[in-house]
Amino acid sequence: PSLPVPAMPELLLELFSEEIPARFQRRAAEDLKKAVTNALVDAGLVYEGAKAFVTPRRLALTVTGLPPRSPDTVEEKKGPKVGAPQPAIDGFLRSAGLTSIDEARIESDPKKGDFYLARIERPGAEALTLLSDILPRILADFSWAKSMRWGSGSFNWVRPLRAIVATFGPETEEPAVIPFSTGTIQSGQTTYGHRFLAPEPIRVRRFGDYVTALERARVVLDMDRRKDIIRAEAEQLAFAQGLTLIQDEGLLEEVAGLVEWPVVMMGSFDPDFLSLPEEVIIATIRANQKCFCLRDADGKLAPNFIITANTLATD
Questions:
Q1: How is 46-75 classified by DSSP, letter by letter?
Q2: Phi, psi values for residue 92, rounded to 5°
Q3: Nearest-CA neighbor of 240 among 289, 306, 290?
């Protein structure tokens, strides 16, 4: 019988902070994914898949199918010809990490004669050790369009960083925390839910239970899912009143970056304002209030708007 394949470890990283400006979010998630996956491959940790997520208060990344350690590697480095001048031989020894030319082999080439060849063996390393070196470097070098320092620390982030979740391990076991610190924050496995609806600390193990725990704590992790919820609920509210939503993809992207738990409602304004040019009303409601405008059955601007709250409305 074939033996069961051992489960490959996965990485969960979450950077929990004060509210990230909506316009930086999607790019930051992509940048984090790219930086981490490039560094993993450079370290010999070839993975199966990676996905990044962002909400106003967190950047998150899951990388699946990572090996528990990097493989041992052997590299052959071709050197100068036998009898080459000493500076060329010294340069070759330095680049190959050898102390003496006796450690190199001599190979012959029928056309070019004998030359030196160094065989460089590099043992693999534990993925956990590699990650504890890679992750703090990525955070220190992470590039935001605007960043800040806070307190007496020297660490820069887009807004004050409050917690870091960093776990690594297969699905079948309790994962290990990847040990590192950034500024005054030590990595762990504690995150937090919605700022108002579920602010208590949450202990997470890996991506699967992380998403479920956040959902219970009123946080929709996936930005595109937040967009879908806002769009669908806005269209339903409009339809119920015989109105249609003025589609606005840019505003939808921004609003999805302002809320962790979208609650969509309809409001109204005094119809007397409709004597103003509609462009003025739409521009003001969109830019200042981050609300969607509506049209009536005749295609005229309606004295209503759609607002997306980040909390449950009591009224």
A1: --SEEEEEEETTEEEEEEES--SBPPPEEE
A2: -65, -45
A3: 306
Name the E strands within the chain.
10-17, 49-55, 58-64, 73-81, 105-109, 113-122, 161-169, 176-177, 181-182, 185-186, 190-192, 201-203, 244-245, 263-268, 292-295, 301-309
Which of 69, 19, 18, 8 shows the shortest CA–CA distance to 44? 69
Tokens 């041992």 found at: 72
49-97: per-residue pLDDT in tens? 999 999 999 999 999 999 999 989 888 888 999 988 999 999 999 988 8
For 42, residues 6+ apart whose C-beta sits below 8 A from its C-beta are none
CB 10 within 8 A of CB 67: no
Question: Exposed, middle or buried by CB within 10 Å (0-12, 13-18, 19+), for 6?
Answer: exposed
| Beta-carbon count within 10 A of 273 CB | 12
pTM recorded for the entire structure: 0.87
In this predicted model, what pLDDT tens digit does every residue of 206-246 receive, in sequence order?
999 999 999 999 999 999 999 999 999 999 999 999 999 99
Q: Which of 148, 153, 309, 282 is nearest to 218 (CA)?
A: 309
